[in-house]
Design goal:
homodimer; mainly alpha; Tetracycline Repressor, domain 2; 76% helix; 0% strand; DNA-binding; HTH-type transcriptional regulator PksA (chains A, B); transcription cis-regulatory region binding (chains A, B); transcription (chains A, B); HTH-type_TetR-like_transc_reg (chains A, B); HTH_TetR (chains A, B)
DNA sequence: CCGTGTACAATACGAGTGTATTGCAAAAAC
DNA sequence: GTTTTTGCAATACACTCGTATTGTACACGG
């Protein structure tokens, strides 16, 4: 077998170009030629690594969820929590919210990529199938943090509620209908009410 | 001036076809020819009523927000509240949530249309500009209902929070990651906590 | 060193896109 | 009844799209 190249590395490189386009111009603007140009390779190279555009999009979503999001997002959370006086569940959740909501170019791009894929997944079962475990994983993570709060709350319901709140706050912030600080304030209020609450759920 | 036809009616007819396509196959599947065929008219007719595809999409979003959503949605809310024993703020908000979350073909289509436009608005300022007042209007409506609860809460923040929660719950329901009943239960818990709450916000 | 299979590059193809152009039937204006 | 203007239909044009095909440089196994 000739020509040793790192197959996975090339795919990550191409997918990176794809995500950059999707984050700035939307998934509609993603064509194989555009991706090739953004990645600095030929159309033939892109075709060589992905059998079809659908396969490329699916692989892009999976890589984005498993590598880009998981890694950089978790890293930013840790960095933010480290700056806090105490790594309490509340501080951690606030850090998650602060990083999840779009507040600069990188996070806005991330939010747009997520929104694009969510929109397409609504009419493309293959993408929905890849998105479901990511949603479940996010909820599990939130639930794990909530469990450490020591409060008598339904952690699973609270986690799903928080996930939905964060996701739902992204859109008005993205289109400029709600300032980032206001969105963060809403999450703060939600968390305060949730964790200070002693009554029945 | 010859040939009297109701200009607005024809536009609504064409836009209706467009929204049907967007709701079932996504906004990407919307082409002028597809819209023409779905509407049962010629491509020339569509061009006659819309100067460009962008103008058609913008008009479609505006009509959808101002006519389809406002009218049918408000109507369904009223019908649902009428079935309740008392038209309390809580009952009204539960009705809003029950109708907002996708639970049948019509509401799933509505949610997919909304999601498609949100996604495109993130990269198309003209669409974002049309979406902002719709968001504001929705928040105003929720705030108006919350004000009648007689609870000492920050109605504006609570309204924005509820709007985000509802929007964020739509997506996992759409992709089948969260059952409709569970989503509604989350809203119930949120409303109960919100309206039963006596402490500071 | 020589074949063999890999990693591309280049190009071609048919389908579909938005838009512009042209033509024409019919109804109102005169 | 002629003229004019509207409401469309048909078609053409220049692209772009995903995909298929072909060619080739080149590293490895033998």
């Amino acid at each position: 077998m000739p020509r040793r190249v790192d197959h996975d590395e090339r795919r990550r490189h191409i997918v990176g170009a794809l995500l950059r386009i999707a984050g700035t111009q939307g998934l509609d603007a993603v064509s194989m030629r555009e991706v090739a140009q953004e990645a600095g390779v030929s159309l033939g190279a892109v075709q060589h690594y992905f059998a079809s555009k659908d396969a490329m999009l699916l692989h892009a979503l999976e890589q984005w969820l498993n590598l880009d999001v998981h890694r950089s997002f978790a890293e930013r959370i840790r960095a933010r929590v480290a700056r806090e006086p105490a790594a309490t569940p509340l501080a951690t959740l606030r850090a998650v919210a602060a990083e999840y909501l779009p507040h600069d170019d990188a996070t806005s791009l991330e939010a747009r990529v997520g929104l694009s894929f969510q929109s397409r997944a609504a009419v493309t079962p293959a993408l929905a199938a890849a998105l479901v475990p990511a949603y479940t994983g996010f909820v599990d993570t939130l639930r794990g943090i909530l469990r450490h709060s020591g409060r008598p709350l339904d952690a699973d319901t609270a986690a799903r509620e928080l996930a939905a709140l964060l996701d739902g706050l992204r859109h008005p912030v993205l289109i400029g209908a709600l300032p980032y600080a206001d969105a963060l304030g809403i999450v703060d209020g939600h968390l305060a009410r949730l964790l200070a609450h002693e009554r029945r759920a």
